[in-house]
User: Fold these one by one.
Assistant:
Number 1:
Amino acid sequence: MRWFFQDFIFGIIANALALLGVAYLLGDMGFSITPIWGYVVIGAMVGFVNAVVKPIITLLSLPLIFLTMGLFLAVINGMLLFAIEYLFENILLNTGIVFTVGSGWLSYLIAAALLSLLNSITHFFLAK
């Protein structure tokens, strides 16, 4: 049980650092999270969505993933990022967290690709 809790906290920290990096790199495109503790909350939400929702959507869209040779996974990541933004805009209004990705589907794809890359880098360096 202790290892599960440590992995959970480690995943939230890694996601929060990756989101901070994406916000730094894509600040001009409109990617922002405020206040600063919002990175931890959004990081937990990204971890939950990637652990629970993404495997189900990936399994259901396997034919498209095979047809596009894996490129459809980027679309899935962008859609999940849009779903998280929608959740914080329309459902969790009382938390005080403002999470914006930008406008247009291209900003979601770029943000999702950078988030995946930076998340892999933070997991690599924090795991050692």
Number 2:
Amino acid sequence: MAFMRRPAEIDGPPVAELTRRIMQRVRGRDTSPELKVRRALHGHGLRFVLHDSRLPGRPDIVLPRWNTVIFVHGCFWHRHRDCRYATTPKTRTEFWKEKFERNVARDTANRRDLERMGWRVLEVWECDVKKRRFEEPLLALFKSLDG
């Protein structure tokens, strides 16, 4: 397996080329769970804006009519508590621990800022999408808001 050397200013062992390629393919938007949530909402007649950069954290889905934003979080990256997908890699554990802590802190700050602006913030987790446990609670919420 070919190894790629890190720049001198970055500490740590060389990164395997395969690992580098895998990490480059991780997407921040239009992920499979996000697309499933969008399809479900749209299928029930809900209309939304995607990735509104004017809002803190650039929420995945913005429903202006209900003053609601939805983040579709990957359990691994956003550390879903007690989830089997929220594992920590066995190599470079200190790096990953710090990275995950920054992600969670950023999520908390974005949620706080959005709520201060008057937005309702919902999180849908990757594992709930995989198990199809997300649709009913979301739709019940929007029906209750519609009156």
Number 3:
Amino acid sequence: MRIAVVALGLVACAAPYHTGELTHATTEGCADVRANAVASPSGFTVMLEFGNACDHAIPLDFSAMGAVSVDSYGARTPLPGRDPHLPALWLDAGNAGSERMHYAASATGTAYLEIDIGALTGGREQWVRVEVAEGVPPRHGYYGFGRWGDDRATNWFPNAGVDVPLRRLGVPQLDEHALVAARSGGTTPVRIRSDGYGGLLTGFALRATPRFGRLVLGLEMAELFSATAPSVTASVGGDALRPSDRGAGAFHAAAIVGLRTHSSVVELGGELAVGYESVTLQGDLPTTTTGCPDTGICSVAASIARPYVEARARADIWLSRQLSLALYIGVDPFAAGNFAVGVGLGNHRRSYDGY
């Protein structure tokens, strides 16, 4: 019977696989397959190398691949022991791999082997002659990027991405006590008021998103800065002042859950981001303000913390097998008028996320 099938390694190829890179290989559908065999006292060891030249993942069913030994008279003897419980390997687009199969059978009188490449790739029956060398089976190198079983699009290692959003942010009326901080040192109490900020912010968001089939989970952190000046007033010692160089900023950290379609062209989906947000309003006061030094600039700022919720529709366009461009729009379901649009760039560990 077959003793063992060694699992495929999970190391990405340096460059996408293209048809013809495996010399002396047999092509069946999307797969190029090359085989060599070694006879030893324990039986036959068949070394298979394969590459996927298509833009989608393909299954390789080792349990269906037949093998026979052929003697010098042409008599064929099936090699027993195909394991019906061995799952298929999904080989990602543009990737290559290798596998070693061992069959416990006598090598006496064997001239060569034949294996059914067609059954391996799920195509038509196609028997290929494999010459047999004598000696100890080599320690075969394993490479490629695939996954055992039907759960072909599970990506425990997160995809990485960066988004550039343009967000309309609504801040409620603000009435906070803070401190005036002079750049040359020293502070003085100040009361900051704002009738509300409904301006635009832009910046960047970093994402890490493992994928489990159609389900996307992940984390996101974003730092945004005002593109329009907020309305802010300050009260210092009873004097109402309007700070100059006014600005706003926002930081959020959120968990992401979403669903995606799968395609090698464009993927559509939705996601929900839920987390924490800190919004800061700031400005500079004249140096003549009470408590400010004669030289330098006095800065004033106040922050509020609140929950962050954003529902998004997202489209990811594949630029290559492992690079995607995202377009999205998001809204805050609990704050009318808060919305975001943006673009993003994603780097995917697996070709087309395994599809």
